[in-house]
Structure formats: C-alpha cells, structure tokens
Amino acid sequence: MDEKQSVRERVWTELMKVAVADSRFHYDFGEFIADFDGGEAACQRLTDHEFYRRAELLFIAPDNCIERLRHQAMLDGKRVLMTTYGIRRGFWLLDPAAIPADLYLYAATLDGMERVAKPLDIEAVAALPRVDYLVTGTGAINHEGVRFGKGHGFFDAEWGMLHELARIDRTSPVAAVVHDCQVLDEKLTPEIFDSVADVIFTPTRTIPVAAPHKPECGILWDRLDRHMYETIPPLQQLRLRKGLPAEL
Hints:
Layout: H1 3-15, E1 19-20, E2 35-36, H2 39-48, H3 50-54, E3 57-60, H4 67-75, E4 79-83, E5 91-94, H5 104-107, H6 110-116, E6 118-120, H7 122-126, E7 133-136, E8 140-142, E9 147-148, H8 154-164, E10 174-177, E11 183-184, E12 199-201, E13 206-208, H9 226-231, H10 233-241
C-alpha cells in the first residue's frame, strides 16, 4: 500500500465516527467526500473569512461537505463554477442572477445543478473571468496544506485545467473544508501536480497555511492517467485546444 492510501485509510477509520452517509455510496469514502458532524460550523468559518468575502467567482468542488457552501454562495450573489460526475459531464456555472431564488437549494445539489445550471465547454470556461477562490473537501490534509483526496485526482485535474486556461495561478487561494480528525500533524509528500490549500476550515478551527507550496503547472500530459483522459471530455477538449494530438 502506498503512502497516500495508507494515510487515507487511517483517516477514514476516524472519519467513520462523524461522517454523514451518502445516499448512493453509503460510507465508501473512496467514492465520495463525506459531509460530517459540524460541517455547518466549518462552512461558517469559511464564509466569515476574507478570501470568501472578496470572491465573486468561486470554484466549489462537487463534495458533500460543501453542498451548503454552494447554496450560501448563491444566496450571497456569488457565481459558482463546478464539475460533476468525476468531471465527465464537464463544467457548470451556477449564476444566482439566472436561477430563480426558490431553486437555489436544489441547484446546490449534484442532481439539481445539472437541471438548472449552465453547462460550459472548455471555450466557455476560458472566456470566464479569473476564478477568485477554489474550495474543496478532501480525505486527509496536514498543516502544510498538502491534501490527499479520494485517490482519483479529480481536484488536481480541475486545478490543472483551470491553470492551463489561465483562470487561476499559484497565487489563487484554495481552501479545504474538513473535520478535525482529517487534519494531520505529520509530513505528507505531494506529487508535483498535487493541489495545496492556503487555509483549512474545520468545525473548531481556522488553520492558515504558511507559504503553501502550490503547483505551478497545468496538465502534465505525459503523466496523465490514460483512463482519466479517455473518460473526461473536457481534458480531450483542452488537449485539442492546445493543438496537441487527440491521442494521449
């Protein structure tokens, strides 16, 4: 078992005590990022923070623990960029000016989002303003902001695509919303493409990360998992946009 999976499974044992089961995946933390006891308090800490207050366009990952944040962002008049189904169905824009207010809560869910949000292809994402703030859940994270997710690499791919499109760079702030049991004191070794958080929000703490060492690259095509590439159309669109061969 590699380091990342060992860390994940150790944290998942503790997370089981406080997690909220998913309607489709139950407690299979390898398939979803769970909500947890105290999730409301963690998100309240995030919305009180300057990064959120300044942001107009946020990328919010499709994680259970930040569904309420997508709802709150729309209530606050902020636009939300997100993906769904492992990025396979692409990017979507939740624009509170274009969605009836009585549908905001529904729109914040994964099923509702696909019915009321606006789908965006890669060219439409490239035409957006810069993303002001990125928010994700994760499996485990340390005080240096190094995060190990489910193991699929979706948030790292989302970071890479937005970086390729110049919608973000290493100065773009990233937040992780987690339970306290997911925050580790130990050293974690990231890959060159692993996303790193600037700040961590738990139910009891706001943890700033000193000088986070964030990736300065987009998609590393020679290291991209072939199955991920073949099953995620936005990656294929991006590769063609860059004038690279369609085949990986």
